[in-house]
Design a protein that fits this description.
Distance between the termini of chain A: 49 Å
Largest sheet of chain B: 7 strands, mixed
Order of helices and strands of chain A: EHEHEEEEEHHHEHHEEH
Largest interface: A-B, 76 and 70 residues
Number of strands of chain B: 10
Strand content of chain B: 5-15%
Radius of gyration of chain B: 34 Å
Number of helices of chain A: 8
Number of domains of chain A: 2
Structural class of chain B: alpha+beta
Number of helices of chain B: 20
Shape of chain A: elongated
Radius of gyration of chain A: 37 Å
Oligomer: heterodimer
Helix content of chain A: 25-40%
């Protein structure tokens, strides 16, 4: 497998890089995904008012268009102002690490946590209403059809599948008894691959009539009627060497 | 980026310090009402790096800056559960078309096996190499479901870059020290009120593991070393009940079953967790062949106090009554043999207690010594009548000689720090295979050692153990004929050898009958004491036995 332990790149960690962890609403992250160019999505305003720091995010104009399913141009716009609520990184020490295809790096520690909230406005309410409507729609719904469907289940004299099957069978014809030696070779090579075989599978492999095949099998194999491998054929112990060089030994054993 | 006049200053400030500093510095500049700076926020699109959060508990005091070297890899230990790796493919043992058949079968029954996703596997983080800390990071679910987390970092040009967080992992430090497994922890929890020295728990476990690694075979008691090992091993398996261990140690395969029965019986009487018993059973079964798998037989032959020659009666009884015991045990508290076993067990407990005390000292040898000692004593009592008595006696003798000095030391300390935890705890020390022989030996050596024992009787080793529990001391442990009597406190009826002899001469009696004769109210002894003393006396008298109405009666003919 890949990824068998990577040494973590600690350069950024040593620099004590600090980052912010910001929780962003889903719709906003969707809008951000639509950003073009370098990826500018808006502006972050950090200020101080009455002794408290105020952070607010302003979404770019072009990104406020909300995609609605089923409508070309929506009248709903996402809000633009998003004040941030700052929180402490109290009971947890949070670090950020990145995984790329070939390495893992520690990017830094979280020094501030924040939540991005939309400024409550008419547009936001409309947006939310839209979202709720969408989410309450059931995935499956019943639909009335104008016309009954008459293209299924027509009666047919013989199904195409059946016709093909019969044609195939005709071509194959009855299985012919091949040379015993050849059959034995086929059997041995099959048993090299697997230890237990169903009679049906052997018939398929060897293309021999069942009775003939069974005769041959009785010579070289044994039938498990019970046990974990029920109703399967396997080679007799003297023919079995499940390491290397079986063919010759089996043949030799058989000859005797 | 829209810049105010103060942007450049801010930029410098930001680049050099953390963001909290930024905040404060901002406040210092600009007008009083509000001053703000604007930064462009970018969400880079082309990054191939996936950001994840590594969360540590604040209490773990993790500081990434102190890490010199770190290594992270996925923990693949769950693969076999999900992956369902096939045992073999091709050639021997495989069937033609097995996979397809299995798949078809699973579809038919609607079995859906979850995929093994590497992405969801926990991380293993190793910091500072081999000697450093280890952490396991488990993925936290539901992080990206309803809201997205972004990491805002400030880039060189003062703009913020936001990266979405892909996954959140909670990292917890992994203990490097040994811990108990769940089963062991449950055991210990059950014993928490009885065990005094909790520090010894891990010590015991370590010892056990060592010894178990060393000697796992069932050896005859011939070799001291072997015995010791075995004892340790047994102790490991059968930690809770020393009696059982004693039995196993002392009685070999030949009387293993006897031992089992006795142990079981004695155990049955004590208030032992059924679970512990079951566990022991299981372990015993696995470890020793030829042992009966009945609860009753566990403590058979658990005769701790008695010298070999005196334990004969006890030996016989357990063996003979073993078949019956199966049914009797649960209710046969009255039966003498059971009471004897109980007494044995008690003594064993005491010894265990003693051992526990000793371990408080933190010495390993005393523990082992104790183990052996216990083993000896039980062995002695158990097999007094068996063919391998000699072997045991011999070993016991060895131990006797060897252990007394240590014993003494241990004793002293133990005695002083005795607690009253003796009564209900057969389990106290794993080591405990209290050996009557050893007890006897120590008794002989030390004479009256532990003084706290209320009864002024023989300074049996048991005595010492019985210290915490004054009740026990009543004459229970004396192998010596000298103090044949139990502590006769002021009472009308004295539980003496003569008294018992008189009764037995007059007519055959069962142990139950005998007990009735010496009622606790009249003799002033507790029921346990009575039982113990009576057992001793019977041993000394060695009465004849007869089965009347399917009950074992004793009688003497003089």
């Amino acid at each position: 497998m890949s990824d068998k332990g990577h040494d973590v790149d600690l350069t950024r960690a040593k620099q004590n890089t600090g980052v912010w962890l910001v929780k962003v609403p889903k719709y906003l992250s969707q809008q951000w995904a639509k950003a073009s160019g370098r990826g500018e999505v808006g502006k972050l305003k950090i200020g101080k008012a009455q002794g408290k720091t105020v952070v607010s995010f302003n979404l770019n104009e072009e990104l406020t268009v909300v995609d609605c399913s089923g409508e070309k141009i929506s009248s709903v716009r996402s809000p633009r102002e998003h004040p941030f609520t700052m929180q402490t990184v109290g009971g947890q020490t949070l670090a950020v690490f990145t995984e790329s295809s070939d390495k893992i790096a520690l990017e830094g520690m979280v020094v501030q946590r924040a939540e991005c909230r939309p400024a409550v406005s008419e547009s936001y309410m409309k947006l939310k209403k839209l979202q709720i409507e969408e989410s309450t729609k059931p995935l499956r719904f019943s639909q009335r059809l104008e016309k009954a469907i008459t293209t299924n289940y027509k009666p047919v004299s013989n199904h195409s599948h059946n016709l093909e099957y019969e044609k195939r069978k005709k071509e194959e014809g009855k299985r012919a008894r091949a040379d015993k030696q050849k059959v034995l070779e086929m059997l041995f090579s099959a048993f090299e691959k697997h230890q237990f075989y169903n009679i049906r599978d052997l018939v398929d492999i060897t293309k021999q009539p069942v009775i003939y095949l069974k005769e041959i099998l009785r010579e070289i194999g044994v039938y498990n009627s019970r046990g974990p491998h029920k109703s399967t054929w396997e080679l007799k112990p003297e023919y079995r060497h499940y390491q290397e060089g079986q063919e010759e030994e089996k043949e030799a054993a058989k000859m005797e | 980026m829209k810049a105010t006049s103060k942007t450049t200053n801010h930029k410098q400030v930001i680049n050099s310090t953390s963001y909290s500093a930024v905040m404060t510095s901002l406040g210092s500049q600009g007008s009083s009402s509000s001053s703000s700076t604007e930064y462009v926020v970018r969400v880079p699109k082309n990054t191939n790096k996936k950001y994840s959060i590594m969360a540590f508990n604040a209490g773990d005091k993790v500081s990434c800056s102190t890490w010199t070297q770190a290594r992270m890899e996925r923990d693949m230990s769950n693969r076999r559960i999900y992956g369902e790796e096939e045992t073999q493919e091709g050639a021997a043992g495989s069937e033609f078309g097995k996979k397809q058949r299995e798949e078809a079968r699973r579809k038919k029954y609607g079995i859906i096996t979850k995929e093994f996703k590497v992405e969801d596997q926990p991380w293993i983080l190793k910091v500072n190499g081999k000697a450093g800390r280890r952490f396991k990071g488990i993925k936290k679910g539901g992080v990206t479901e309803n809201a997205s987390y972004y990491i805002f970092t400030q880039s060189a040009d003062g703009a913020f870059e936001a990266f979405p967080v892909h996954a959140w992992y909670n990292f917890t430090p992994q203990a490097k020290h040994r811990t108990l497994t769940a089963e062991e922890a449950e055991e210990e929890w059950g014993r928490r009120n009885k065990v005094v020295n909790h520090f010894s728990i891990m010590l015991q476990r370590r010892l056990r593991e060592q010894e178990r690694g060393g000697g796992d075979e069932d050896e005859e008691e011939g070799e001291k070393g072997a015995k010791k090992k075995k004892k340790g091993g047994r102790g490991g398996d059968l930690r809770i009940h020393d009696l059982e261990e004693d039995l196993e140690m002392s009685s070999d395969e030949s009387d293993g079953s006897n031992g089992d029965d006795d142990e079981a019986k004695a155990k049955a009487k004590k208030e032992k967790g059924a679970k512990g018993k079951g566990k022991k059973k299981k372990k015993k079964g696995s470890d020793l062949e030829g042992f009966e798998d009945s609860d009753d037989g566990d403590f058979e032959g658990l005769e701790v106090d008695y010298m070999s020659d005196e334990s004969s009666s006890e030996e016989e009884e357990p063996e003979k009554t073993k078949p019956n015991k199966g049914e009797d045990v649960p209710k046969g508290i009255d039966e003498m043999s059971e009471s004897e076993e109980e007494s044995e067990e008690e003594t064993k407990n005491e010894e265990e207690n003693k051992e526990e005390e000793e371990e408080e000292d933190g010495k390993k040898t005393p523990v082992q010594v104790e183990k052996k000692k216990k083993k000896d004593s039980s062995g002695e009592s158990d097999s007094s009548e068996d063919s391998d008595i000699e072997g045991e006696a011999a070993s016991a003798l060895f131990m006797k000689k060897r252990t007394p000095p240590k014993r003494g030391g241990g004793r002293g300390s133990a005695g002083s720090s005795r607690t009253g935890s003796r009564p209900g705890t057969p389990s106290i020390d794993n080591a405990a295979t209290s050996n009557t022989l050893r007890a006897a030996a120590s008794k002989l050596e030390q004479g009256k050692r532990q003084t706290t024992v209320p009864s002024s009787e023989t300074p049996a080793a048991k005595r010492l153990k019985m210290e915490p529990s004054p009740q026990s001391s009543s004459g229970k442990s004396t192998p010596q004929p000298a103090s044949g009597k139990s502590t006769p406190s002021a009472s009308d009826v004295l539980l003496t050898e003569d008294a018992v002899r008189r009764y037995l001469i007059r007519k055959p009696m069962t142990t139950k009958d005998l007990l009735k004769k010496f009622q606790t109210k009249r003799t002033g002894l507790s029921s346990e004491q009575t039982v113990n003393v009576l057992a001793q006396i019977l041993k000394r008298l060695n009465p004849e036995r007869k089965n009347i109405n399917d009950k074992m009666h004793f009688y003497l003919t003089e």
